[in-house]
Amino acid sequence: MASDAAGPPGMDPYIIEALTYLAFCILLIAFRTYCRMRGGGVSALGPEDYLMIVSILPFVAETTIAYKVGETFHGLTNSDMTDEEREALSPDSHEYALRVGGSQAIIGGWSMYMTLIWTLKASMCAFYLRLTSGLPGYKKRVYIGFVSIVVSYIICMCSVLLSCQPFHKFWQINPYPGNFCEPAVNKLTIHLSMYLNFLTDMYLFLIPIPMLWTAQLPKAKRLGWPFYSPVVF
């Protein structure tokens, strides 16, 4: 089974796309940091800038894990198997080792994905905090945003790491461990991350709307705000 999944030689197009996207984003963050420092050096950087730089670490880790899952483990995990296939697969086989390794890597991938996305949310919130300096009424909304980011991140990470107990069942193959113990298709993790990601994005999107709407800005610029919101990313 594993040999069939390996496919033709050569790097997976998905991996090439992921590496290209990573390189582009690192260059974009570097250019952004350069522009911020050009006027006042390191002292010109704010918390949001440091968070953007820090986000490179989980981004690199996530991409590395994705590469390993695709190239080393051939995309194999403890999911997408019938009961008969699980019973027939020997624990001493190469495919068994690939499926165990792939499942373990997926847990790391989920963790790095959550950390990356929620670090970017925190960066956006830190930017709002600087943007609303001197506006106490708006700062309260930003602080609520920070709290929602922290709480939602903890919930998502708990779903990644604690939804299956004992922990080693995350890579159990036989008997079938249940959906919550299949890292690649864990419905709890998928749904929680999707909904909490959307809800926190929408809240961050709405924070500056009242301020921008009452500001003395051309209507076109005010209406163009959605294109610069975190929802776009």
From TrEMBL:
Keywords of the record: Membrane, Transmembrane, Transmembrane helix
Name by which UniProt lists this protein: Rhodopsin domain-containing protein
Membrane spanning residue stretches: 14-31, 110-131, 143-162, 194-213
Cellular component GO terms held in the UniProt record: membrane
Family recorded in the similarity comment: Belongs to the SAT4 family.
InterPro entries listed in its UniProt record: Rhodopsin_dom_fungi, SAT4-like
Lineage of the species this protein comes from: Eukaryota, Fungi, Dikarya, Ascomycota, Pezizomycotina
Membrane topology category: Multi-pass membrane protein
Stored Pfam families: Fung_rhodopsin (PF20684)
Keyword Transmembrane: yes
Residue ranges the record marks as coiled coil: none
